[in-house]
Structures are given as C-alpha cells and as structure tokens.
Design brief:
mainly alpha, 434 Repressor (Amino-terminal Domain), 2 domains, 68% helix, globular
Length: 168
Amino acid sequence: MHDTMTNAWFYQLKAANRLLIKKNGGIEAAADTCSLSKSQVGRCNNDGDTELLPIPAVLRLEAECGDPCVTRVMAGLHGCKLTDPEKENRDGTCLLRGSLELGAVANEYQRNASVRFSDLKVTPTEAGQGIRELQALIDKASEQIRRYSEILAKGGSEMPDLKIVGGE
C-alpha cells in the first residue's frame, strides 16, 4: 500500500508539472522563464522520468502563467485547498459559466474514455491521461461547490440579467 500511495502522489505532481510547463508555452519557453536547462525541464515533462520541477522553478512558472497548478496539487495532498481572493465574485455569471465548463470537461473526459476503452485495454499512457482529465473534472467540480457554498452562506443570490454582447 505504501508504494501505491507514493506512486499516487508522484503521478499527481507529475501531471501538474506537465500542465505548468504547457501553460508556460512548452519546454523551451518554460526553461527560459525559470532559468533551468531545456533538458531538465524536458525530464520534468516526461512521464517516464522521475524528476520533478524544483520549488523555485514552480513558483516562477506559476507566477508567470497565473495558475498555481502544482501548489494546488501539493495543498490537496495535505488535505488543503487554495482560495483565490481575485476570484471572489463567483455569484450569478460565474455560477452559470462554471456549470457550463464543468459539463464540457465531463463530456471531454467521457469522449476520451470511450476511445481509450474501445480496445478493452488501458495502457499506462492512457491511464495517465485519464488521471489528468479526471483531475481537471474534480477541479471544476470543486470550484462549483465553492460557488454554491458561498451563495448558501449569503442566504441566496440573484442571477444577473443576461445581455447580448455589444448590445445597449
């Protein structure tokens, strides 16, 4: 069981490393941003390598793209969640948009899972992709739960009027 737990946290962090590198424009751009070599960032991006981004690099890359994706996973591994004070306006429009985004992520996972399962075999690469997609789904669901919780704590919320973009 200890090996399974070790592997589980490692794969979560590895997926977050890959996402962070992607959000920073890929291996070369991320290497330039965090002052690491392209080969080191490449190893951190490679599923088959055990190297993870060092914390100073994670902090620089997260600041650059504005998404604390590795920090969020590390917090989650300790049973904690991050909050973003910049995104406190989550009523109304955010609730509607969040619901649509959650549905889109769920549909994308299901579509990809159908393709993965079509041969009745799941490779390690396919399992890794499934983990990444489910983590995105969990993140979107957690955001929606937070929005509903805030509305519940306020005693309700009015939905904003819908407006046509560019209309008067």
